[in-house]
Design goal:
The structure holds two protein chains of two kinds. Chain A is mostly helical. Helix content of chain A is about 85%, strand content about 0%. In chain B, a hairpin with a 3-residue loop joins strand 1 and strand 2.
Chain lengths: ~280, ~300
């Protein structure tokens, strides 16, 4: 009897908690929307005060421009950038994974490669962009090279960490049961290092996109970076801001809907391990 | 593997397969961490030199060092231009520190706001995220369109580029203050100033420092871009000057200068300082990596 009473009280409490939680959530959404309204309102007031479209166009004017771009060559331009950046990431993984593997496997190579990787990781993006332009001129491969170079250290460092973290006991057990080195590599090392490759890509994701677009500013006839530069040279401020906002939106959407989910999937086993 | 590294440099002396004898002092040095790093540097310079043999347009290490010597000592570059290292470097440092100051202070204020109030967080968080996602060259373009080729453009580029990184870090730090400790110190009537000194400052200091590091890295990239696109002086401008003049040794020389600057400031000075200042924290480096993961990914 007392048990059921206690239970019902508990249930009541839970319902209360849930209701207040929903209330807080609703209030938070409201505040987020309010935040956007305040942001756009301030922008609008500022644009009125500046009073020049070439300096600061109003939000409405930029929105018009966004619509024009969306109806026009939005997808061709974005697709051009996406293909290059993805190819660049492939290059980064292709080079970074073996580098990281050696760094994690042997102490000597860890020391040998440490400084180069750290220095490569702190080189300003401008360097890579200009270098890619010098090597390839106006071409498809410039941004690929730049993205590959900027993302490589991140992939390498993460893979090294992953290789160092491979479960020793698992390796020992596999050897004890007579698995050869290749089998251990294929079924123990690779699966446990793979998420770290992804982590490297994920960490360098926004940086690499930024450098990729920067490279398009220098040496490209297509892509988001090229569009931003073209409109900058035409002094077309609304179009510059419109392209930048589309870029930001695109990045945030990829971040929220693809990367976060992929990460959750890939690292599910880790969560499981933590729960255990 | 170690033998391979040793063999790379001294193919003539220890190339013979000397199996069971204990390694000599030279060999031991070669396989030590310092030896490995020195070997890496030597291999890098050797590869660079080799590259100049294949592609003659690439300036070699000697050429670049000569250039830098002339540029730094203010000598004459072939009788046309004088070396102007310190002039440009000083100008860039001035603008950089001013922009960093602006970005840091505003980031600190907004970060404290976002971290301490749920309403402020809901209001401002998305704006900060948008700013975080904007590439620095966009700020270089926008500030140039607003201010023309002036000193304000690079200063504001640095400020805009570094602001969101400071804000996000500080907000995270403020939110990381342990509520139990806060409740406890309030319950035991610890004074506000004492709470601030012993609870809030130690909890947030690491995050502020991490934010500063990001601000420096991002801001340095920003000022180079801004000066490259619209400077009439400064490191970025000078780099572009040699690039446009088709003197790649000048370009490479200045690239080395700005890379060395950021590596020394970030990895050598700030990283050590951080380790020493926050050694008492259980996992300050791990925290930093965690923070890094959370926002570099954005």
């Amino acid at each position: 009897m007392t048990d059921t009473v206690a239970e019902s009280i508990q249930e009541l409490d839970q319902a209360q908690v849930l209701r207040t939680a929903a209330g807080t959530r609703r209030r938070r959404y409201l505040a987020v929307v309010l935040g956007w309204i305040v942001f756009i309102g301030l922008w609008w007031l500022l644009s009125l005060w500046v009073g020049s479209e070439a300096r600061l166009p109003s939000p409405g004017r930029v929105f018009q421009e966004i619509v024009v771009i969306l109806q026009g060559d939005f997808w061709t331009q974005f697709w051009a950038s996406i293909v290059r950046v993805v190819a660049g990431f492939f290059a980064a993984v292709l080079i970074g994974t073996p580098v990281g593997y050696f760094m994690g496997r042997s102490k000597y190579w860890g020391n040998f490669l440490q400084s180069p990787v750290i220095v490569a990781g702190s080189i300003p993006g401008l360097t890579y962009a200009v270098m890619a332009f010098v090597v390839f001129g106006i071409s498809f491969w410039g941004p690929v090279l730049a993205v590959g170079l900027i993302a490589m250290p991140y992939v390498a460092i993460n893979v090294a960490e992953g290789v160092r973290g491979v479960d020793r006991r698992l390796v020992e057990m596999s050897t004890a049961y007579g698995r050869n080195e290749r089998q251990v590599f294929r079924h123990v090392t690779v699966p446990s290092v793979l998420p770290f490759v992804f982590a490297g890509v994920r960490l360098s994701f926004s940086l690499a996109w930024k450098v990729g677009t920067l490279t398009e500013v220098f040496g490209s006839s297509k892509g988001i970076g090229f569009q931003i530069r073209r409109n900058y040279q035409l002094f077309n401020m609304p179009a510059v801001i419109a392209w930048v906002l589309l870029f930001v939106l695109f990045m945030l959407l990829i971040e929220r809907f693809i990367l976060v989910r992929a990460e959750k999937r890939l690292f599910r086993w880790r969560q499981w391990e933590r729960d255990r | 593997m170690a033998a391979m590294g040793a063999g790379q440099m001294t193919a003539g002396t220890v190339a013979l397969p000397e199996a069971p004898t204990p390694p000599g002092p030279f060999r031991r040095w070669m396989t030590s961490p310092i030896g490995a790093q020195v070997t890496a540097a030597v291999v890098f310079i050797g590869a660079w030199q080799l590259l100049t043999l294949i592609a003659p347009r690439v300036p070699g290490p000697v050429e670049v060092v000569n250039f830098l010597f002339v540029e730094i000592t203010g000598g004459s570059h072939g009788g046309i231009v004088r070396g102007q290292f310190f002039e440009h470097f000083a100008i860039t440092l001035q603008r950089f520190s001013l922009g960093l100051f602006l970005g840091f202070v505003s980031g600190l204020l907004v970060g404290i706001l976002i971290g301490s109030s749920t309403l402020a967080r809901a209001l401002l968080n998305d704006t900060v995220l948008v700013l975080l996602t904007m590439p620095a060259f966009v700020w270089a373009f926008l500030t140039t369109m607003w201010f023309g080729i002036t000193w304000q453009a690079p200063v504001l580029t640095v400020a805009f580029a570094s602001f969101p990184f400071v804000a996000i870090n500080v907000a995270q730090g403020v939110r990381a203050i342990a509520p139990e400790l806060k409740h406890m110190s309030t319950a035991f009537e610890v004074g506000r100033s004492k709470q601030f000194r012993h609870l809030i400052v130690p909890a947030v200091a690491g995050y502020i420092f991490a934010g500063l590091r990001f601000a420096i890295i991002v801001g340095w990239n920003g000022i180079l871009l801004s000066e490259w696109f619209s400077g009439q002086a400064g490191v970025g401008f000078r780099t572009r000057y040699w690039f446009d003049a088709n003197r790649y040794r000048g370009f490479v020389g200045w690239v080395i200068v700005f890379i060395v600057f950021i590596v020394v400031v970030d990895r050598v000075i700030l990283n050590r300082l951080q380790k020493r200042a926050f050694y008492w924290r259980d996992a300050s480096e791990a925290d930093f990596i965690e923070i890094e993961e959370q926002q570099v990914g954005l």
